[in-house]
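Q: Make up one entry.
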Amino acid sequence: MDDAIDQVWEDFTRLWRILRWEQKSAFRIPDRKLLGFPYWRTATEGLFHAIPRRSSITIAHPDRETGWFGWQEAEKLNFSKLWTNPSIDEPIGHELQNEAELLVERAPRSALLMATAAVEAGVKEHISRFAPIADWLIQEMPSPPVGKLLKKCLPVLHQDSPKVQIWNQATAIFNKFENVVVPERNKLSHAGKSVNAEDVRDYIRLSRDILYLIDYLAGHDWALENLSGEAVKIVGLPTPPEHRREVQIALHAGPHVGAQQRPQI
């Protein structure tokens, strides 16, 4: 029974990780201890889990004050392809990026550190996947030259792919990360320099664009739809129509129940 519960919980959290990645939304997944486990019953009789309270996931869209989802046929198909492939999960870079976006309002310095770490993690993960022979070397680098890797290494790994054309048009994005964001991170790390929250929001948007460009290079064509308006112009893409809508997601939650309250299986 415990193994089954663990598996359902893992599926539950994976669903939310993939959803926030594909939808370009930032939110924390509820802690299992706080949320409890969603017991249910299929029979017409017998005991089932009582739900005394409600909890919710607060979704923050990085380009708006509230969370918005797009759920037309294209988004449904994108999500379905990700969800039905058990080897796919939210990349570690996006997981760190999610933390940066949640931190920026109350802790901009921590958000800056997290955003730069997100890009470094995303680059390392991509190289490890597409050039496994270099896995040990790239993982041992304490702080890899991300700018050079973005401009020189990653396009070589995909030199036979037509996607490289769009990638090479994003050089200005990579240069800004290398020449502006990384130095600001270094000043903060070495001297404890204060940062401007508005600047950090811009850096976070930049790091998010880089991560979605990496996703595109890895085969996720839908990732281009999540680029910022500035990045879309830089790489020469048409501006996609806006069709996302605000959603509110509520979860039934309650404390863990005793054995006598659990459904008979």
Observations:
- The CA atoms of residues 124 and 130 lie 10 Å apart.
- The longest strand covers residues 53-57.
- The longest helix spans residues 108-130.
